[in-house]
Amino acid sequence: MKIYIDGKLIDKEKAVISVFDHGLLYGDGVFEGIRTYDGLGFRFKEHIDRLYRSADAIELKIPMTKEEMVDAMIMTLKANKLRDAYIRLVVTRGPGDLGLDPRKCSKPTIFIITYQIALYPKEFYQKGLEIITANTRRNYPLALDPRIKSLNYLNNILAKIDAIKAGTEEAIMLNYEGYVTECTGDNIFMVKDGELITSPVSIGALEGITRDAVIGLARKMDIPVFERLIKMEDIYAADEVFLTGTAAEIIPVVRIDKKRIGGGKPGGITLRLTGAFKELTKSDGVRYDV
Ligand code: PXG
User: Fold this and answer.
1) What DSSP designation does 7 have?
2) Residue 284's pLDDT is what?
3) Residue located nearest, by CA, to atom 3 of ligand 1
4) Considering only CA atoms, which residue is closest to atom 6 of ligand 1?
5) CB of 253 closer than 8 Å to CB of 243
6) Mean pLDDT across the chain, nearest whole number?
7) Which of 3, 32, 150, 182 is deepest in the core (most CB within 10 A)?
């Protein structure tokens, strides 16, 4: 397996970065998780735009154009002969000294890992997922805006630990005011009386690429869709709940905090959107040959 590091393709065993890299020392950097489907890169442009927006927000200048970044991803996919892949694209502040000062880091580190996609078990999709509400609150946006996809994922990891302790895969994270933001690595949607509702990202959530794709599909399918503040009471009373993310795609949720949601199985709108999303991944993307 070849890993892209700073312009070169390097064998996995030799693909290493400095212990002085501020990505490691301080979580100072940004990343993306991207999928390809049968030689089609899903929403590459949107992912790359988000990466550069995240980098801008932490005043990290990526020393490559967006076009060069897409070329580097495709080069790595080709080197590993992957038509169905998960891509991890990381840009760190680069090696510096043992202090926070980002000015001491002379050059950002860019690396790209492409891997076979590890799919979630089929039964999650067929039966639906059980999740909990995390004790850990989502980061306060004025302290560290969750719209920045940074290497600082401790907030999410602490909530993931809450989920694991409860024997579940995912957990809902509330913001400091108690509104539903998202899960640890997925956005959240609910359906009530035929309306599709998701939290506005401004309350403290990542603007998910899958989330945007699902909103677009719902509009096309004449499903009324709204961004609205959601409380846990609303979620418990929902007809359907599902999560969206690059790895999970669309995953139904049937129990939250031990309470049954809707009919306790994946709902009709969730299943229609899942079908439409699958079709979208076959047509909407950047084609590359391996
Ligand atoms: N919220 C958070 C906090 C995320 O990290 C999403 C929502 C969904 O966004 P997309 O753009 O993927 O629809 C994410 C993304 C991992 C992993 O290894 C998780 C994500 C991305 C990359 C890797 O678990 N979640």
Assistant:
1) T
2) 85
3) 185
4) 186
5) yes
6) 97
7) 182
Interval between CA 97 and ligand 1 midpoint (Å): 30
Asked if residue 179 lies in contact with residue 230, where contact means CB atoms within 8 angstroms, the answer is: yes
At 107 the pLDDT is: 97
Index of the ligand 1 atom closest to the CA of residue 206:
1
Catalytic residue of the set 149, 165, 258, 265: 149
The DSSP output letter for 138 is P
CA–CA separation, 50 vs 163, rounded Å? 27
Taking the C-alpha atoms of residue 186 and residue 206, their distance in angstroms, rounded to an integer, is 9
Residue closest via CA to ligand 1's atom 5 equals: 185
Q: Is the pTM of this model over 0.90?
A: yes
Domains and CATH numbers, the chain: 2-115 (3.30.470.10), 122-280 (3.20.10.10)
Q: What is the pLDDT of residues 24-37, one digit of tens each?
A: 999 999 999 999 99
Distance 34 CA to ligand 1 centre (A): 9
Q: Are 109 and 96 in contact (CB under 8 A)?
A: no
